[in-house]
Amino acid sequence: MTTELVEGIGLLVTDEGELRDAALVIDDGVIAWIGASSKAPAADIRIDVDGACVIPGFVDSHAHLMFAGDRTAEFEARMSGQKYAAGGIRSTVAATRAASDEELLANATRLVGELRAGGTTTFEIKSGYGLTVVDEARALRLAQTLTGETTYLGAHVVPAEYADDVAGYVDLVTGPMLDAAAPHAKWIDVFCETGAFDVDQARAILVAGRERGLGLRMHSGQLGESGGVRLAVEIGAASVDHCTFLSDADVDALAAGSTVATLLPGAEFSTRQPYPDARRLLDAGVTVALATDCNPGSSFTTSMSFCIAVAVREMGMTPAEALRAATAGGAAALGRDDIGSIALGKRADLAILRAPSYVHLAYRPGVPLIAQTLNS
Ligand SMILES: [Zn+2]
């Protein structure tokens, strides 16, 4: 096996704290040694990062990359003060259904390239713009070629053809669509919100997914309090995502349970909504993750650095807390203990910064600071 020595690390962010003038050894994709640069052992390959800060690769646990079409005009209208007109998501559904496999995969692959260039080494991809048996299965089959973290989101929105028969659509999502999607998915997700799926429908959808061996995730608390957050904790979801509107009972439930609260500040940025209060969650002892929610309607960013900058500026997180949420937090949200931090035995997924400290991710917003990623 080839061993690699990464040396000359000005600041190394590890599980056990921050080390200066550090080095680490990678053996077959796994971190095998961490210590002072001056004491580094020999290795087959040496990589000198010349004083840079090295952090864990970002883990983006929430991304909707499998779509076609463009919604620039909708964003422009929203930012110009025009009232949001419903139907944007349905335009993405129509474009996605009409796209070829090659078009869908090419678009997602381009976005994955952005993620990687931005320091992300693990990412999730959801379906949810097909909303038919064939189109949901197709999205997941294509997503599987890009990541192991694939999520079936047939319950993203009720498609137009089921507008008068939501119960019928839930039957489809928990029946034939689940049968077609499950072989290509690791997770099942549901958008539990007023105007989308209610708590009883969300429960039925998640239980059906669990019976097929899928892990559970939820969208909730984006537009208001809905009871979805407490359902997520009660049912043992790995993560409940958005968490912008939370009651005290929601926060208490999250603190007492093991469900990660994943915050998606790109959505609030792009819809001009109030940001979630990360400080309240952290002070209550809740595990918090940050993710991009990359999608063409409400958060068209692939930049975890951007999410960190917003979290620090607007959501009450320290730079260290935001980095942790974007790495270890995302790993927890995906139920992964092999990634998300720099520690012996973990996968050597690293981002090398063009900066002496990770604080620059928030201090220098909008500046591309990822020099290189190493992906085991
Ligand atoms: Zn989402």
Task: Give an overview in words.
The chain has 376 residues and is an alpha/beta fold. It has two domains: 89 residues, Urease, subunit C, domain 1, CATH 2.30.40.10; 276 residues, Alpha-Beta Barrel (TIM Barrel). It is built from 14 helices and 15 strands. Strand 9, helix 7 and strand 10 form a beta-alpha-beta unit. Helix 8 runs parallel beside helix 9. The structure holds zinc ion.
Protein traits:
2 domains; 14 helices; binds zinc ion; Urease, subunit C, domain 1; globular; 36% helix; alpha/beta; TIM Barrel; eight-stranded parallel beta sheet
> Superfamily at the CATH H level of the largest domain?
Metal-dependent hydrolases
Q: Count the E strands.
A: 15
Enumerate how many helices there are, as a single number. Answer: 14
Give the structural class: alpha/beta
- CA-based gyration radius: 21 Å
Based on the coordinates given, report the CATH architecture of the largest domain.
Alpha-Beta Barrel
Overall geometric form: globular
Arithmetic mean of pLDDT? 96
| Estimated helix fraction | 25-40%
The profile of the biggest β sheet is:
8 strands, parallel
Distance N to C terminus: 13 Å
How is the largest sheet built, in terms of strand order?
A: 6-7-8-9-10-11-12-13
Number of domains: 2
**Regarding CATH, which class of the largest domain?**
Alpha Beta
- Ligand names: zinc ion
Report the portion of residues in β strands: 15-25%
What series of H and E elements makes up the topology? EEEEEEHHHEHEHHEHEHEHEHHEHHEHE
* CATH topology annotation of the largest domain: TIM Barrel
Q: Low-confidence segments, ≥5 residues, pLDDT <50?
A: none
